[in-house]
Amino acid sequence: MSTARRDSSSTFTLPTSSVGYVAIVAAVVTGILHLVLGIVFLFRGGIPSLTAILTQTLPVLFILNGIGFLGGIGVYLSQYWRRELHLVAAGYAGATIVAFFIFNGGFSPLVIVSKIAEVTFIISVLYLYTIE
């Protein structure tokens, strides 16, 4: 984010641009969807053993992706955020979209909401990169 919003006395600060809030909401939506769906897929059929968890790659990737989006919000709001990280965030969301097509996922209402959130996120962070 902009150095104008960084206050050295505060660890976390809020965005000064409304587009920053749009990016946060989009990240929350896709992050929670991936986290919840990963947990549902992982625990389908009961509590898995550690071996079963390690062999269920896709649910684990969903959970890690959700954690990545939600953790990214924390970094974005922290004093550690730098302008260049907007590009990293856009690439992260883009990789999520590409991974969906590589794994040949089926479309559902939740997938559509998630992909719309990810595209919104990419547009938002690229806009923030250009203005800051």
Care to give the gist of this entry?
The chain is mainly alpha-helical and 132 residues long.
Describe the structure.
- This protein is an all-alpha fold and 132 residues long.
- It has one domain (16-131).
- 70% of the residues lie in helices and 0% in strands.
- Helix 1 packs antiparallel against helix 3 and helix 1 (18-42) packs antiparallel against helix 5.
- The chain is globular.
- The N and C termini lie close together (6 Å).
Chart the SSEs and their pairings.
Blueprint: H1 18-42, H2 50-55, H3 57-76, H4 85-102, H5 109-131
Helix pairs in contact: 1-3, 1-5, 3-4, 4-5
Termini Cα gap: 6 Å
Radius of gyration: 16 Å
Summed up, the domain count is 1
Helix content: 55-70%
The percent range for strand residues is under 5%
Summing up helix and strand content along with how strands pair, one would put the structural category as: mainly alpha
Largest sheet: none
| Oligomeric assembly | single chain
- Outline the low-pLDDT stretches: none
Q: Supply the number of helical segments.
A: 5
What is the overall pLDDT average? 89
Keywords for this entry:
132 residues, mainly alpha
